[in-house]
Batch of 2 targets.
Target 1
Amino acid sequence: MTDSGPKFKIFKFLKIIIISLLVTALLLFTVASIRTLSLDVNVGLKLARWEKTSNVSLVIDDHQREQLLAHFKEAIRIPTVSFSGEESNTSALLEFDRFLRKAFPTVFSSSLVRHELVANYSHLFWVQGLQSDLVPYMLLAHIDVVPASESDGWEAPPFSAKEIDGFIYGRGTIDDKGSLMGILQALEYLLIKGFAPRRGFYIGLGHDEEVSGYKGAMNIVRVLKQRGVQLSFVLDEGLAVLDGVISGLEGPAALIGISEKGSATVKLSVFMVPGHSSMPPRETSIGILAAAVKRLEDNPMPRLFGHGPERGTFEHLAHKVRGTSYLSIIAITFDSILHLFCCYAVIYSLVLERKPDTNAFVRTTTAVTMFNSGVKVNIIPSLAEAYVNLRIHSAQSLREVLDLIRSTVGDQRVKLELVDGFDPLPVSSMDETSFGYQIIKKTVLDMFPTVTVAPGICIGNTDSRHFKDLTNDIYRFAPIWFKPGDAQRFHGINERISKKNYEELVVFYFSLIKNCDIQKLPKPHSSIHEL
Ligand SMILES: *[C@@H]1O[C@H](CO)[C@@H](O)[C@H](O)[C@H]1NC(C)=O
Ligand SMILES: *[C@@H]1O[C@H](CO)[C@@H](O)[C@H](O)[C@H]1NC(C)=O
Ligand SMILES: *[C@@H]1O[C@H](CO)[C@@H](O)[C@H](O)[C@H]1NC(C)=O
Ligand SMILES: [Zn+2]
């Protein structure tokens, strides 16, 4: 199944059409009778009676608005860049520390808050709860950003925080200073209003997330483990509110990340006797390595769509899909006859794998990122090396992926070495008894009633992966609005957030912290009947 010639493409396309027609025919018989399932995905606990926990509320006036935006812009202007695992702008990190103390004086002086530095530049806050029997939770965000250069084509200098048409431009506006500042600004407001939480919580701000969090997040975890801390849930950056991004989907969707793909970096090397280019051997280290790399590209990892939590995403979005696109045909099918899911997953995989961004949901992806050999035009080099970066699908393990690479390469002369890697993250809970998921969902729906909330998977990785021994439930989400084209701004040029959206982040964390004060979740069914 590796031929990608034009003949095969036509065949594949016909196959998709034929199978889709069969699916449609099948639907005509089944849809009418069973299209009643899961229409209440957004209702559930929303209609239930939630315990009222506090009378504190947030109305941002013009003066506060001006001030919170000024703080946010100041945060963007400090170039807290991580250049590599070893090199970060430490003077910017120190400046950021001073800035936080100045911007949020109540957070840093409240008797309810204990603040400490971890690994010199990361911050850990403990906000004490009145009821020590309530299991604490944790909010995460990171201080560092990836490099940015104005010459790449930014409309405004990347550390200027310049305002254009209601948007603040700058590196870090969405990744991840929006959340970081939103969390601390919300806490500042809560404390000023005299709020004292019933449920204690932690806030962790790592300083090296963009280079894996080995110093910041890992040391925060070490400190918490030493203290025997267990967390109800962790909320970190990751997914967002997608508006018009998923084709065929009616209305915006808030995707809450319930897992992350795993990752592996594998080094391939071939060592041969060096020689002069005037007497070349039949095969060189470069040729052998190139062939191995080509085999990896020609034989993608198996399709696993439907075997991981991505299934839940499509089930939850199914009833909002319109039109007659493949997505709608397949999605309506998910909605109605879930037990036949596997058949359709195969067809849908064929559609998804045609685009790089959706292919990432279908399988473990394989990307050759470095290829080095040779130093002189007339010398046959002895050594050729390549690096392959893989992002592991939730239904596969690091071990399985390495075994597959070995068999695909199938050449003893190519040495394989795992440079760095980890399994996909466990899947967090999302049912009606899942405290963190339901709190996040309620907070989103209170603010944005027309949004569909669904679980999702993060294709990239976050600091929260280091926290998996402290909790079973890690969520990756912030209510940042992504419209078509916005995803490219992430780690790209013209990263920006609207002023309104930043304010929404503050309100979101303010409400979330309040909502976490309930003792336990309401019971959905009995409450719905009362209405
Ligand atoms: C909210 O205010 C009402 C009326 O002043 C009071 O009875 C109630 O106890 C307050 N609730 C909380 C959670 O503080
Ligand atoms: C590091 O940050 C400081 C501000 O704290 C800034 O003046 C300096 O230009 C930055 N250095 C680099 C290499 O970006
Ligand atoms: C913190 O700073 C001290 C002194 O500069 C240094 O020795 C130490 O290695 C740093 N710790 C970390 C975790 O970076
Ligand atoms: Zn980030």
Target 2
Amino acid sequence: MGNERVFAGIGGIVFLAVGIGIGVLIGWYSGPDRVNTSMENALSEEESEIQQRLLDLIDNTQIDENLRFLTSEPHVAGRPQQYVLAEWVRDKFTEYGFDSSEIVTYNVLLSYPSEVDGEESVVQHLVYNDTEDGYQVEYESQTSEPPLDETGKDKDVLPPFNAYSANGTVEGELVYANYARVEDFFALEDLGISVQDKIVIARYGKIYRGDKGKFAAQFGAKGLILFSDPADYTVLGEPVYPDGLYLPPTGSQRGSCLDGSGDPLTPGYPAVESAYRYPENGSTYLGLPTIPIHPIPSVNAKYFLSLMEGDEVIEEWRGGIEGLTYKYGPGFAAPSNESLVRMRISTSNQRTDAWNVIGTIRGSVEPDRYVILGNHRDAWAFGAIDPSSGTAAMMEVARAFGVLLKEGWRPRRTVMFGSWGAEEYGLIGSNEWVEEYSKNLDNRAVAYLNIDIAVSGTYTPDFGSTPNLYNTIRAATKLVPDPNPDEFENGAVTTVYDRWSLRDSGEDEPGIHDLGSGSDYAPFLQVVGVSAVDYTFVHDKATIPISPYPMYHSVYETYELVKNFYDPDFYYHQASSRLFAEMLRDLADSKIIPLNCAVYADRIGDFFTALKEGETGQKMVNDGDLSFDFMEDAVENLKVKADAFENYIANTLDKSDILAVREVNDRLMNFERSFIDPLGLPGRPTIRHVVFAPSSRDSYSSDKFAGIIDTMFDIDNNTDPEKWGKVEQQLAAVTYALASAAHSLELDMA
Ligand SMILES: *[C@@H]1O[C@H](CO)[C@@H](O)[C@H](O)[C@H]1NC(C)=O
Ligand SMILES: *[C@@H]1O[C@H](CO)[C@@H](O)[C@H](O)[C@H]1NC(C)=O
Ligand SMILES: *[C@@H]1O[C@H](CO)[C@@H](O)[C@H](O)[C@H]1NC(C)=O
Ligand SMILES: *[C@@H]1O[C@H](CO)[C@@H](O)[C@H](O)[C@H]1NC(C)=O
Ligand SMILES: *[C@@H]1O[C@H](CO)[C@@H](O)[C@H](O)[C@H]1NC(C)=O
Ligand SMILES: [Zn+2]
């Protein structure tokens, strides 16, 4: 860090003001206080041709073919068909002319619904019978979903189960806990209903199911039954599968209940041969549920819930099962008041291989800079939406890049394609790979683009990303033709951007949500601090509040479902592919990396204001006697430095000076790394991003400044004498990260 070479300094700032003036005159400066980076990458004729050719190459029928193949058999993580698909992906990358393509294997802890004594997991109603001198099974939940289409017939489908559920049998009384969110358990406490030693029955939805399991155990329940309520997975009067796309009463959601992500036995380290593996039953918390958790369809839930004792629940807790009065419990009403519920769960954990496939196209100018596009390959059954819609689309991006390669083009930076294994269990394949290569990624990864579910609706695109990618995303949507412009008044919509902004409720630009967790971008963002994008084409969530889509993780998520009810011609899949192809090209081939740190700094300013002026911030000041002054200074300074940096790029940087360009690009790439706290968030050492983190109350959603939010949670009920000190420590940690981010951009710091 010498002072000889002054990057820009005062002179640069003066020049920059002049530059803006000229910019306005000649019309390339847009926006009041910011230069749009993508403007700085005005394409040459040749580059524009590549851009257009890439979009033209993306073929909808090819994606249709990919999806049909990928969904012909169930392809659960660690199972033989998942390896067959890994080989297929590897061979495709090779066929497309990639420089390398390989299967990367990790040995990790997965979980399967094993039978015990020939019997599958069930939830039973036990009735005491004097004459038989004991309990008899009166009723039990279904052990599989009856197939309703051609794909589902005679295939080796795993029965519905919750991965990592504890194994064993528990018996007891039921308590209904709505969505089993922490606030639902608090509400039960307030009603004087304890779940201690009870079996909780709760509906799926609103939050990550693993968090439901975590809270049920924390509040003392000995088992958790999850069900898919029609209120959350159907629309009244709309046909269910196979007549429509809504979940039939026999449908059930599979899914993991791991608390955390990555291989449970090797937290923080890759699951390679030399790794230390913690014992499953040792003293280190590995995020494995301690109680049995099991999913049932609504047809079974109706039976159990209809027997329940107790008051009728409040309106918000009522689901949509017809003819049922929802009650809290505990236990069953007379004449069933002497009977019990039994969960007999034989799900068991097994060490198994997870297979990633990594395909690489080496960059022509900067081969040591990586832009990564990833998608998981494993599904709970046929996975026609999750994740194979994404796999089918990603493979078409790969094919298109391959064609350009064969025509002699090569991106400036290296492009990598990751096909991840065992995502469904807890983002395991991607997490282990990120851990294994964390130092390389730290020094070389420009951005990570994630495509999990490509199409789960045909209403509007839905993006999540770090703010430095907002402009890049919007620029791509302005280039990609809309998949169905006829849906709109003549000519109102020609590009995906038009549709998106028309259907977005916000004012200015269409909104992009913040990243929490729930797919493979999370390890990139949380472990290394790689800027990331996630995306899905979704249904109208405002009028149909189903998350993510009705058939999610059921056996009915088949090729027929997609073909008949979602995207018969694969135009929405094609648009998805094109969006990723263009974002990948832009990030890998633009001279200046299209990551805008000024937009990021502005967004942080918004988060700061929301925190400070919100209830949490007020409480911190009033009850905790804490001050936001230092953080406010850091936020303001970050804005100043980020604006100056963007303006330097726009107006001062000599773009023919390859070292100067590289220096700027390195800073743009590394900006996100400043937000990584090596110690992690409180109690979550592998969640390390201080601005964006999965919420502790729902890991699918995003908390801003989660360290502060977490230490403030339930602070009135917290008896720890150091509780305010812990909040203050988090406030200081965020302030430090923001200051680091500003330092990383300082123009006079060479
Ligand atoms: C109890 O068991 C006997 C013998 O299996 C059977 O006939 C009877 O119906 C049972 N009673 C009830 C209430 O289920
Ligand atoms: C699961 O529990 C049953 C008894 O409840 C036992 O027989 C079986 O061995 C257990 N399976 C595993 C894998 O621990
Ligand atoms: C953990 O499991 C292993 C293998 O089943 C067993 O040998 C060991 O005694 C168990 N340890 C504890 C603390 O339960
Ligand atoms: C079950 O209900 C019946 C009828 O109300 C009552 O006689 C009996 O005592 C109850 N049993 C228990 C265990 O509460
Ligand atoms: C404290 O805990 C009770 C339940 O025990 C809950 O109702 C209340 O909302 C909590 N207070 C806060 C501020 O979270
Ligand atoms: Zn998925």
